[in-house]
Design brief:
Elements (H helix, E strand, L loop, with lengths): L10 E5 L5 H21 L6 H19 L2 E5 L2 E5 L3 E6 L3 E6 L3 E5 L2 E5 L6 H6 L21 H20 L6 H4 L5 E5 L1 H17 L3
Antiparallel strand pairs: 1-2, 2-3, 3-4, 4-8, 5-6, 6-7
Length: 207
């Protein structure tokens, strides 16, 4: 993650994944074991396509389950997803909710992060966030609080503060007119790795 000297780019909250990391690491380790075994026994008849498939599965597990991240700066909510990174201006957020994934609406578009989410049962049991703009609330998870609830409250606090600073109300014309509401950056490393693994898998069927 790149850090910038400008205070608006300083990370004020790094949100931890609520699920998927253990499965992701297990998948990467197992896929790595397949690749190592394939390289070691390739001359002994180990199927090349199995080696290539293991590589593809490992790359996909890393890109889809381990690479995604979520953090907030003073001015932006940043979602790093499988193949891109989205910077959403906090003051431009129109709606936001944590269900099975985090869903954010800004600039008349919907953006999703799989980093934070609730189970289906927790989603049904979750209650609406109380009103108010007390930016001192929910600065840290309280005892017994589900982490997804903390994330939702904290994000609402950050959004409320950013809206107040920008002098806009949710859904207002002024909010919709905010410049640079969303910036999406394509991340070529995972795209290139996935493409290379797919090509290798296809080629392996002809070896």
């Amino acid at each position: 993650m790149a850090h910038h000297d400008h205070p608006d780019h300083e990370v004020v909250e790094q949100f931890h994944p609520t699920s998927g990391r253990v499965t992701g690491w297990l998948t990467v380790v197992l896929a790595g074991a397949v690749v190592v075994a394939g390289l070691a026994y390739l001359d002994d008849g180990f199927p090349p396509w199995v080696l290539a498939a293991g590589l593809l599965v490992g790359v996909l597990a890393w890109a889809a389950m381990l690479r995604p991240a979520l953090w907030a700066t003073r001015e932006h909510l940043v979602m790093r997803n499988l193949a891109d990174t989205v910077h959403i201006r906090l003051a431009a957020v129109e709606e936001m909710a944590v269900r099975q994934v985090l869903a954010v609406r800004a600039a008349d578009r919907r953006f999703v992060s799989t980093v934070v989410g609730r189970t289906w049962r927790k989603t049904l049991q979750s209650r609406h966030r109380p009103g108010g703009t007390d930016t001192g609330a929910a600065l840290a998870p309280t005892e017994g609080m589900h982490y997804a609830d903390f994330v939702e409250n904290r994000l609402h606090d950050l959004v409320d503060t950013a809206r107040s600073r920008a002098g806009v109300r949710p859904g207002s014309t002024e909010q919709l007119a905010l410049p640079d509401a969303v910036r999406r950056q394509r991340d070529w490393l995972p795209v290139g790795l996935i493409a290379a693994a797919v090509v290798l898998l296809v080629v392996s069927f002809f070896l």
